[in-house]
């Protein structure tokens, strides 16, 4: 055995060990194989290792509905304008150009881009009609209508695309915005869910956050924004997500955290005017009014926004700088005088909200209600409510009606604004003031508390007013609501006690067949038959106990047609009115009826039969 083992060991090959020389040889072989594979496969267009240029980045963003940088958009617009000038019948190029115009309007806040976008998209539809599936132009037209505040038209375009191609995901962002603007929030939620199902990604998560925020589900909205941040790729996309997170934090009453998000957005995309306006809002909430005025003016220089102009004017008034507030207010007055139509403001005022067909009825209505003619605000917002029954219009119309002096009608719209559950300090403040005007101090106190709890710094003007009104109302009176507080102290009622005679006459528990029937007593009336009151029975004879008979009939009367003779017990079983009287010896006697509160003796229908009266009265 030892010899065999020794021979086997000598015949076995030496163990494999990796040396530096062998490792280099293996690596060289792998490099040769990879190089051979690359030489064998021909080059493709997608193999370009260079990063995408500005035009490619903008085209990709426009195609997916994501935000794009202004510089990239400018490059894409220049390229497409040159292309369609040389190829005027390229419908796809016209659709891309129209979408680029629309995104440029969003980025700059300049409404002059909207008519350009409309002409380009209509040209694309002329070359390739909607019936032939020009989905890019159709969704572009829907997005354009939503951006202008014409949500009914946006819904038509979105539903048209969905009807032709239910899996065309670009229709669902349009439908979410359109349904929300129309006040059809359940439909917006369904469209959002379908979008997440068909195309999960940045756009889907942003729309989900919007829908959750409108429902008052702020935690779900925050989670959706976290997912959107994970799906964002370019710096511009990340900046937009940070801006949206800042808006959510601001509404929750966290200005310091919101400002950090706004500053992160500005570092990623310095040209984003919305983030700059948000930082101005947060600075005002933190008491840094001078810096807030600076940022508001910078933001208005980049994007002409009526909302920012109104916030700047109110901030200047709260700082005692009313003369400076005239400039932004004049801008809004010019837009209001134009009727929100297509006329522009005076020279140098490009922020007339009506230019480009943009609908700014809510902002202009709030401005007119507080700083102009409340009657004009009511007329403007009433017309807007007829078209778009959303929460923002309901709140603004209710506030305008209050400023006009009609608090009863105003409260109805303030309630409509809160029906969906949106947590808004402005909405709560408006409702509290309306309820206080109606003399409902309890409801006013509750909604003033809601406004202060949601965001105590929601406005440099209305925030201090809400805190002052809440302090003036004070705490509610002790004792709870008037209709809940008892008028007298509670006293324990006296429970009925059985008498000695009733206890003595109580019979033992019956046995046999009677036990199955329960306590003896009159049979209940049949279903659907009204119960008849028990009539007094005839007096009992001296030596005979009361005969059992029907409790609801008088003395026996001759039957004009007695028919065939039957046994009495069988006749009683078949006659619904002929119910036997309870027999003594079955626990009745003079025992108290605890259910009905009788304790002094038997009651008709609940114990022994009483003596039957004689004469016609027995009937």
What does this structure look like?
There is one protein chain. The chain is mainly α. It is built from 28 helices and no strands. The chain has helices spanning 2-11, 20-40, 54-64, 70-86, 91-108, 113-127, 135-148, 151-164, 171-182, 185-198, 202-215, 218-231, 235-251, 255-268, 273-285, 289-302, 306-318, 322-337, 361-371, 374-387, 391-404, 407-418, 425-437, 441-454, 462-473, 500-505, 513-517, 568-574. α5 (91-108) packs antiparallel against α6. The longest helix has 21 residues, at 20-40. The protein is globular. It starts with a helix and ends in a 45-residue tail after the last helix. The model is unreliable at 37-43, 45-49, 341-354 and 508-619 (pLDDT under 50).
Features:
619 residues, mainly alpha, globular, disordered C terminus
Assembly state (oligomeric) = single chain
Give the % helix: 55-70%
Whole-angstrom Rg: 42 Å
pLDDT < 50 runs, ≥5 residues: 37-43, 45-49, 341-354, 508-619
Instruction: Tell me the number of strands.
Output: 0
The whole-number mean of residue pLDDT values reads 79
* Termini gap: 127 Å
Largest sheet: none
What structural category arises from helix and sheet content?
A: mainly alpha
Number of helices: 28
The topology string of helices and strands comes to: HHHHHHHHHHHHHHHHHHHHHHHHHHHH
- Beta-strand percent range: under 5%
Spatial shape: globular
What's this model, at a glance?
By secondary structure, the chain is an all-alpha fold. The protein has helices at 2-11, 20-40, 54-64, 70-86, 91-108, 113-127, 135-148, 151-164, 171-182, 185-198, 202-215, 218-231, 235-251, 255-268, 273-285, 289-302, 306-318, 322-337, 361-371, 374-387, 391-404, 407-418, 425-437, 441-454, 462-473, 500-505, 513-517, 568-574.
């Amino acid at each position: 055995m030892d010899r065999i083992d020794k021979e086997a060991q000598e015949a076995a090959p030496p163990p494999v060990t990796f040396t530096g020389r062998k490792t280099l040889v293996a690596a060289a072989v792998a490099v040769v194989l990879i190089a051979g594979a690359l030489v064998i496969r021909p080059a493709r267009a997608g193999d370009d290792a260079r990063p995408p240029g500005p035009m490619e980045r903008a085209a990709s963003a426009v195609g997916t509905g994501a935000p794009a940088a202004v510089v990239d958009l400018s490059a894409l617009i220049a390229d497409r304008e040159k292309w369609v000038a040389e190829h005027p019948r390229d419908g796809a190029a016209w659709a891309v150009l129209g979408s680029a115009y629309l995104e440029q309007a969003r980025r700059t806040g300049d409404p002059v881009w909207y008519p350009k976008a409309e002409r380009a998209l209509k040209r694309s539809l002329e070359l390739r009609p909607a019936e032939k599936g020009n989905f890019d132009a159709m969704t572009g037209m829907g997005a354009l209508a939503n951006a202008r505040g014409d949500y009914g038209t946006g819904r038509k375009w979105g539903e048209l695309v969905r009807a032709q191609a239910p899996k065309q995901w670009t229709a669902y962002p349009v439908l979410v915005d359109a349904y929300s603007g129309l006040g059809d929030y359940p439909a917006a939620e369904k469209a959002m869910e379908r979008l997440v199902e068909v195309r999960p990604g940045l756009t889907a998560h942003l729309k989900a956050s919007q829908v959750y925020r409108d429902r008052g589900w702020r935690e779900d909205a925050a989670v959706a924004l976290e997912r959107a941040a994970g799906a964002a790729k370019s710096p511009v996309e990340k900046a937009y997500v940070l801006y949206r997170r800042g808006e959510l934090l601001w509404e929750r009453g966290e200005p310091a955290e919101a400002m950090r998000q706004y500053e992160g957005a500005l570092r990623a995309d310095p040209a984003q005017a919305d983030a700059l306006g948000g930082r101005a809002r947060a600075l005002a909430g933190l008491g840094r009014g001078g810096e807030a005025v600076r940022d508001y003016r910078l933001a208005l220089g980049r994007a002409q926004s009526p909302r920012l102009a109104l916030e700047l004017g109110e901030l200047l008034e709260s700082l005692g700088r009313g003369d400076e507030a005239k400039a932004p207010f004049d801008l809004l007055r010019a837009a209001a005088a134009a009727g929100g139509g297509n006329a522009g403001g005076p020279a140098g005022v490009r922020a007339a909200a009506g230019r480009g067909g943009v609908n700014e009825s809510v902002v202009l209505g709030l401005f007119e209600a507080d700083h102009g003619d409340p009657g004009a605000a009511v007329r403007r917002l009433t017309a807007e409510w007829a078209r778009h029954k959303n929460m923002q219009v309901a709140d603004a119309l209710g506030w305008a009606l209050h400023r006009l002096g009609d608090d009863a009608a105003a409260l109805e719209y303030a309630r409509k604004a809160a029906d969906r559950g949106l947590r808004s300090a402005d909405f709560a403040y408006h409702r509290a003031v309306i309820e206080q005007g109606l003399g409902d101090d309890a409801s006013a106190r509750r909604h003033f508390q809601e406004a202060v709890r949601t965001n105590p710094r929601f406005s440099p003007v209305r925030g201090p007013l809400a805190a002052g009104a809440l302090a003036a109302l004070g705490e509610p009176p002790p004792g709870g609501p008037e209709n809940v507080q008892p008028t007298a102290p509670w006293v324990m009622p006296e429970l009925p006690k059985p008498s000695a005679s009733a206890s003595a006459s109580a019979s033992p528990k019956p046995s046999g067949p009677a036990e199955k029937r329960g306590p003896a007593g009159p049979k209940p009336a049949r279903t659907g038959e009204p119960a008849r009151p028990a009539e007094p029975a005839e007096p009992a004879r001296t030596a005979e106990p009361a005969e059992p008979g029907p409790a609801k009939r008088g003395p026996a009367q001759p039957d004009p047609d007695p028919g065939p003779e039957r046994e009495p017990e069988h006749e009683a079983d078949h006659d619904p009115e002929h119910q036997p009287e309870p027999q003594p010896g079955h626990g009745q006697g003079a025992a108290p009826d605890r259910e009905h509160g009788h304790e002094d003796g038997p009651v008709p229908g609940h114990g022994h039969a009483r003596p039957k009266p004689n004469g016609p009265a027995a009937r």
